[in-house]
Write a structure and sequence with these properties.
Strand content: 15-25%
Bound molecules: glycine
Largest sheet: 5 strands, mixed
Number of domains: 2
CATH architecture of the largest domain: 4-Layer Sandwich
Number of strands: 12
Shape: globular
Number of helices: 7
Mean pLDDT: 80
Length: about 290
């Protein structure tokens, strides 16, 4: 178990940590990096040591149920259970991850807990990345992102969450974005910076999400169990949320209290559900993926 996280107020004010193994709140440690150093990103044991030196309490990150699942996986691997061996064999990664071929297959997605407490529209598989965007009364924007990445990841793997432009991005005069889902896909297109740049060119927050969906799709690496989802906010505070798959829920907190939001856009599996802007608006300028 290792954690990544970041905070960002703008291109000149950003902090991130990755590979924490002894501290439970990576975004809080990232904030210390932003506020108390001239650096942007600390990693691994040195990031944990930094957190210690700055007074953060340590914690055991592995919950009992996660430890039990990991031990069960080890037992099955040792017993030669092929379903426990590896989704990465083709990539030559020595069986470090279990199979996760997604829904519909025999062992599909079983490492990911179903549902999210029965909420309507909840993701078919549990997911633990949290992204937050904030805007204060003076219009100051901020973003934070926090994750354990993936279950059973290759040790040392770092996703999008602690990296500016990938898991989060803020340009104070333009807007902010934060992403969740498969970090490899998000990083591959620098999804959060793509979203903010779409707004810089005049697009709405929803246009920004459509732009990201189209770009991820164009890469052509989207597998059935992948998700990429975003929250996007422009400088005025207008917000849009959306993702490839159903189940990306957000919460908005404002003067009227807090409430759960269903996504403005679910790009797949029903592509007809694209918003009008995707076919008759700014986002039209994004070319459809080639076959
Ligand atoms: N989006 C979180 C991760 O892939 O690490």
């Amino acid at each position: 178990m290792s954690l990544d996280g970041a905070v960002m107020l703008g291109p000149a004010r950003f902090g991130g940590v990755c590979g924490l193994r002894r501290h439970l709140h990576p975004a809080a440690v990232a904030r210390l990096v932003m506020e108390r150093t001239e650096h942007r990103l600390l990693c691994g044991e040195d990031a944990d040591d930094f957190a210690d030196r700055h007074g953060m309490a340590g914690a055991d990150l592995l919950a009992e149920d996660a430890r039990a699942a990991w031990q069960d996986w080890q037992r099955r691997r040792a017993a030669g259970d092929a379903s426990a061996i590896d989704q990465s064999k083709d990539a030559g990664l020595l069986g470090l991850r279990p199979i996760d071929p997604g829904p519909g297959s025999k062992s599909g997605g079983r490492l990911f807990r179903p549902g999210s407490d029965g909420l309507e529209g909840a993701a078919p598989f549990g997911h633990d990345t949290i992204g937050v965007l904030a805007r204060d009364r003076e219009g100051l924007l901020g973003a934070a992102c926090s994750t354990s990445g993936l279950p059973f990841k290759v040790p040392g793997r770092v996703g999008d969450s602690p990296i500016a432009g990938h898991g989060l991005f803020v340009d104070p005069g333009v807007g902010a974005a934060t992403a969740t889902g498969t970090g490899e896909l998000i990083s591959g297109i620098c999804a959060s910076v793509v979203a903010v740049e779409t707004m810089r060119r005049g697009g709405s927050p929803l246009d920004a999400i459509v732009d990201v969906m189209r770009r991820v799709e164009a890469v052509g690496d989207l597998r059935p169990h992948h998700q990429v989802a975003l929250i996007v906010m422009d400088a005025s505070g207008a917000v849009a949320t959306g993702g490839f798959r159903p189940g990306f829920l957000s919460v908005v907190c404002d003067d009227d209290g807090s409430r759960i939001l269903q996504p403005d856009l679910v790009h797949r599996p029903d592509d007809e559900a694209l918003p009008e802007s995707a076919t008759d608006g700014f986002a039209k300028s994004v070319p459809p993926p080639t076959a």
